[in-house]
């Protein structure tokens, strides 16, 4: 069969082009935005309507987003916002704007005078909103009789928007290039906008802001808002003034759950136990709040990776000025400026009053007579899964910083901190020491502890002669038992055998001078001959006897002064340890009263009275308890505040009434 002849090539092209041209001519008169609209409408899980388009989705998909597209009329362009696709595939951040992910930090370097921009997209907020909706449905199903209020609550959440928590920490900053710089370095400034009119907020674009520009304080700032829009953030690094050089490094984060970085400026969340010339001992506040929850307590005590850390700097030359509220700033400054000799040992403990867990820090390698600035921080990247965080300790991944604090090391080597003793487990403070035990606190603690344990064994033999396990009518007391007696005796004995040591140069009037005829550890002459008119009499003179004897001052008989000043309370101290001159914070008198109250009268315990009491025991502060005027087990210091197990037991009116009729039977404390 003959082949059919095809039309020429030119004719075939015109038959395709001509209809396309006609269609184009018909389209031109219509505006470009006529057929594209974005609006929130009601929809079902299988059908979403946007303008004139409809999209049929599989019925098994649960669409939790209203609206598919956004019409930016002022920009004249269409930016996709789809719930089921990454923004990087459909709607990208504007050029020069860094995209933030929910709950993830963005590290940034910036030169002075430069503004860096960030955005948390609506898609990140929608993911959070979908989680909230699921929680709402769960709540409603759990309370079928309260579906109306549950539905209303869910609607309120959707209408109010998602809460966005924005935080920033400065990690590195310019440094001075002059020998002396008094002013702190300039701080970063943060701008926040939720308006599409201002997608790059900063010093030159400060209109339509969600709040006034925020200047960082101490290297940190936080801000929260509720929105369903994109959140635009600008961070401005200021121009440097004369005397500064370098650039800035910082972390910025936005989260829909909590602040990524946090700061507590109300208190340090830390107590100081005591210091010596080269170390200091600290504990945190109670981490949990329920004493009867033994499982939660044991979990904390078994923690291997402790989330708390402590950083410190010499106050005269510390490198964290401008970072006081920044976790990364404090950490990096410590690592860059800390001496290699400084060491911090961390542990969990339930000592120092009560049974609740605490974090303990033993700081070593410090300089004598030096003032330090310290910070407690909590690392949000350390897992706390399964741990009780009831004491407001839930933090973001960027960590938490508590209020800074200061302390000063002792000037002399006559005192040394001991703790974690096997027998006298409540003892934790500085005791009389000497250079032979410098750097070996374990040997010093063992020397004291072994003596106390030996003395206690002798006491238990005497207590064993008392019929403790007998009928109620035959017991020596209906209020106290032999167990109470043994416990109170142990606390008293440990406290008097291990006196709390203070520097010889300390000036508090309630301190007792000791060992005044000994030379100082550095070889300086003994202070006795120069301080006292008659060295052989070892007395301070008669000026105290002429005073009005206000609270804290004492009138000592000459004989009592001679014995008290010339030697230590415990003979072992002068014979085996041989410290230089020091001052003692006397044991609290209620330690003695507790023994008299708790122990059988057959043991003959009573407390000294009059001048003899003044050289052996001290009294608690009766002006609100803000000064540590005497020593007791569990005593700790925080900004001149005293705390410890004894504070909830001792010093009450009932103790004083009991003491009124038992003193004078025997003398406890003839040390």
Q: In a nutshell, what does this entry contain?
A:
With 671 residues, this protein is an alpha+beta fold. It folds into three domains: 97-260, Jelly Rolls (Sandwich); 264-408, Immunoglobulin-like, CATH 2.60.40; 415-662, no CATH class.
Task: Jot down its keywords.
five-stranded mixed β-sheet, Jelly Rolls, 31 strands, 14 helices, elongated, Immunoglobulin-like
Q: Give the fraction of residues assigned to helices.
A: 10-25%
Number of helix segments?
14
Distance between the termini: 135 Å
- Roughly what fraction of the amino acids lie in strands? 15-25%
Number of domains: 3
Residue runs with pLDDT of under 50 for 5 or more positions: 31-90, 132-151, 534-557, 639-671
The side-by-side strand order for the widest beta sheet comes to 5-7-13-10-11
What oligomeric assembly is this protein in?
A: single chain
What is the arithmetic mean of pLDDT?
Answer: 77
- Shape descriptor: elongated
Q: Tell me about the largest β-sheet.
A: 5 strands, mixed
| Classification by helices and strands | alpha+beta
Number of E-type strands:
31
Computed over alpha carbons, the radius of gyration is: 37 Å
Region (Disordered): 135-159, 522-562
GO molecular function, one term: calcium channel activity
Organism: Westerdykella ornata
Biased composition (Basic and acidic residues): 551-562
